[in-house]
Design brief:
By secondary structure, the protein is an alpha/beta fold. It contains eight helices and nine strands. 30% of the residues lie in helices and 24% in strands. The strands form two sheets. Strands 3-2-1-4-5-9-8 form a seven-stranded mixed β-sheet, with helices on both faces. A two-stranded antiparallel sheet has the order 6-7.
Length: 250
């Protein structure tokens, strides 16, 4: 495990479970909401998951499991890959309260076991702003391509790269240079939502922010065939893009 992965693991295992309880509520209460309408938990991506009964779906960086549980309730066999044991704790409690099962693997996604997961998944679902945690996007895309079955589908949703130069979705401008390729230290996403204790110092994450062309070209070069590219308005300013979603096949 390299330093970047170690930094992000340390950060996302620091009071993360506490944050999920504060932000999402008790697992049994959140489960009631997801069970009532699992498709609603998938937001605008629901159109890709209309007929997933029995499909194997991977949810890399699946965090607290709210999307994975929704997919499982719709009949999919879901595997979450994540760096944080604290995320896993909340996710498995949420799954148990929702009466579904998740296969939740904590570890370095770069070291995924291809003897098990090569050409294994029917679909991949990445969402919620995760690309900046990977310093080598080409390696990430190569792994994603390898674990997907032929003709499999990938839905990749992330924060719009405009966040590098201007504030979107409550995030401040990240680096003020759209073409910046450096590695940066930054705060874990939930830091400002938790009460600070004394002189407490939160562990720092390690970030690499990508441009749209870097993301799209990496997917193409890895072998994916892109079918759709959609942009969505910022949560806080409808005049600028806040997220994007790529739909592609292997």
């Amino acid at each position: 495990m390299n330093k970047q992965i170690e930094d992000n693991k340390n950060a996302w295992e620091y009071r993360a479970y506490e944050y999920w309880l504060k932000n999402e509520g008790l697992p049994e209460e959140r489960a009631k909401i997801i069970i009532k309408d699992p498709m609603a938990r998938l937001k605008e991506h629901g159109k890709y998951f209309c007929n997933i009964e029995g499909l194997k779906i991977a949810n890399p960086c699946g965090s607290n499991g709210r999307r994975a549980v929704a997919l499982a309730l719709l009949g999919a066999d879901v595997t979450v890959f994540d760096i944080s044991a604290e995320n896993k704790k909340y996710a498995l409690e949420l799954a148990d309260c929702s009466h579904v099962e998740l296969d939740y693997i904590v570890g370095d996604f770069y070291n995924i076991d291809m003897s098990i997961y090569g050409n294994y998944f029917d679909m991949l679902y990445l969402e919620g702003g995760i690309l900046h945690y990977f310093h080598n996007i080409d390696k990430l895309m190569e792994i994603l391509f390898l674990i997907l079955k032929p003709n499999g589908q990938i839905i990749l949703n992330d924060f719009h790269p405009f966040r590098k130069i201007m504030p979107i979705n409550f995030f401040k401008s990240s680096v003020e240079d759209y073409f910046d390729t450096n590695i940066h230290d930054g705060d874990v996403a939930y830091k400002d939502f938790l009460d600070k204790v004394g002189n407490e110092e939160f562990p720092k994450c390690s970030y690499r922010f990508y441009s749209i062309s870097e993301i799209i070209n990496s997917m193409i070069n890895s072998g994916f065939t892109i079918k759709e590219f959609n942009e969505y308005p910022s949560w806080t300013n409808k005049k600028i893009p806040g997220e994007f979603t790529v739909y592609a096949i292997k």
